[in-house]
Write a structure and sequence with these properties.
alpha/beta; single chain; globular; 26% helix; four-stranded antiparallel beta sheet; Alkaline Phosphatase, subunit A; Arylsulfatase, C-terminal domain
């Protein structure tokens, strides 16, 4: 047997563990990858976590894939997306808060990004939906390596007029603003289907990001999406939120059906995640000229603490699933995983293990596929209100102030996932070590950030 055949056999065997017990076929073929991102979906806004919201298609992914039970993102949307595309904490690029209004802030275009790196492996890429890493066409997805892009540049929009909250245009296709009729959720889904079936090069592997606006406000759903909750959810705001989740979940089902129709389901890895935890409510009076009603209740992060923008678990620990038909066994993975780990994990599946030097994420694939555990792991998250550092099972949170010393909190998130008991004083030696580790991470951040509450 020659060396090439020996290598192929060993590589095939390394994949065998990942396959379901029903189908023990092996393969070394590179997968297509679809990354689906919900906007502001909380921990308890998916059915498989016990929510009253019906999400049968997301639940299908969880029941037939790998559920990441401790997946950490940033407290808000722009930073999570920056971390995803660069494999680094977003604060290294100065992005610690949403890029909003008429800001000129943007993701630096001089650093390697996921779509650029995938190009080297002959992948075609498309981003359909929310961008939020540069609000002008000159800082849109094409600059960062996407072959095709469609959707909206800002962080939110009216679901039917497709205008940003201050009236700016944001709906575009491939670098040009456009006008279309229809609900954003449907338009994003239709474009994704069209790209899969008509636009992409069928001779190439693809990376497709489908970034929904749902369930982010303003909530503008047809009655058919609200009807299933008329008796089970009394609060009208929460009912509207549930309708937005159901609408998105139905669209995910349409995408999964399209993969089957195109005979792509067996060689496509589907990843589902939320960009951050849910918001508690929304006061609409200063946005969209006040035409949309405020929402007293939005998402649900139960049983985790607090809401989007903080560094507590409710803001940064979110639903995430990996599904790959006949390749991944159903499993709940309890390893501590960060959004910065997605880039090296995806690149490894694309056959690229030569990571750029500035990548800080870890290859996620061994823990997803074989349930291997990361050891001696730090997960650093900086928001515009707080910073946190997680070293299993401990989490330290720092809240800085302009004229007084910072406040610190220490939690054992294994024993106390609700972060009710600050055990800083009972673990002073450990706390001091984690304070130093947190500060060391903080010092590596960009000096100029897009928002800091101390300024």
């Amino acid at each position: 047997m020659n060396i090439k055949n020996q290598f192929l056999i060993l590589l095939s065997l390394s994949f065998a563990f990942c396959y379901s017990q029903k189908n023990q076929k092996t393969s070394i073929e590179k997968p297509n990858i679809i990354l689906i991102i919900a906007d502001d979906a909380g921990w308890n806004d998916v059915g498989y976590h016990g929510s009253e919201i019906k999400t049968p298609n997301i639940d299908f992914l969880a029941k037939n894939g790998v559920e990441l039970n401790r997946f950490y993102v940033n407290p808000t949307c722009s930073p999570t997306r920056a971390s995803l595309f660069t494999g680094r904490p977003a604060s290294r690029m100065g992005i610690v808060a949403p890029i909003g209004d008429k800001s000129q802030f943007r993701l630096p275009d001089s650093i390697p990004t996921l779509p650029k790196l995938l190009h080297k492996r002959n992948y075609q890429s498309a981003l359909i939906g929310k961008w939020h890493l540069g609000l002008q066409q000159s800082s849109g997805p094409k600059v960062y390596g996407f072959d095709y892009s469609y959707g909206f540049l800002h962080g939110q929009l009216d679901q039917y007029t497709h205008l940003y909250k201050n009236g700016d245009k944001t709906w575009y296709r491939n670098g040009e603003f456009i006008e279309e009729d229809g609900h954003v959720t449907d338009l994003i889904t239709n474009e994704a289907i069209k790209w899969i079936s008509e636009i992409r090069d069928p001779k190439k592997n693809f990376f497709l990001e489908v970034a929904y606006s749902a369930p982010h406000f303003p909530l503008q759903e047809e009655q058919k999406w609200k009807d299933p909750y008329m008796h089970s959810i009394k609060d009208s705001s929460r009912r509207d939120f549930a309708a937005a989740m159901s609408h998105m979940d139905n669209s995910i089902g349409i995408l999964l059906d399209k993969l089957k129709q195109e005979k792509l389901d067996k060689n496509t890895l589907v990843i589902f995640m939320s960009d951050n935890g849910a918001m508690e409510n929304w006061d609409s009076k200063n946005e969209y000229n006040g035409i949309h009603p405020s929402n007293t209740v939005l998402g649900d992060n139960t049983p985790l603490r607090d809401w989007k923008t903080s560094n507590y678990e409710g803001a940064i620990r979110v639903p995430c699933i990996f599904y790959w038909k006949d390749h991944l066994r159903q499993n709940k993975n309890n390893d501590y995983i960060s959004v910065i780990d997605l880039l090296p994990g995806i690149l490894s599946l694309a056959g690229d293990n030569n990571m750029p030097k500035n990548i800080e994420g870890k290859n996620i694939w061994p823990t997803v596929c074989e349930n291997k555990t990361f050891t001696n792991r730090e997960i650093y998250v900086r928001g515009h209100l707080q910073e946190s550092l997680i070293q299993k099972p401990w989490k330290i949170i720092r809240t800085r102030h302009a004229n007084t010393p910072a406040d610190y909190e220490l939690y054992d998130v294994e024993k106390d996932p609700q972060e009710k008991n600050n055990v800083l004083l009972q673990n002073e030696t450990l706390a001091e070590k984690m304070k130093i580790a947190l500060e060391n991470q903080f010092k590596m951040d960009a000096k100029k950030v897009n928002y800091d509450k101390l300024k």
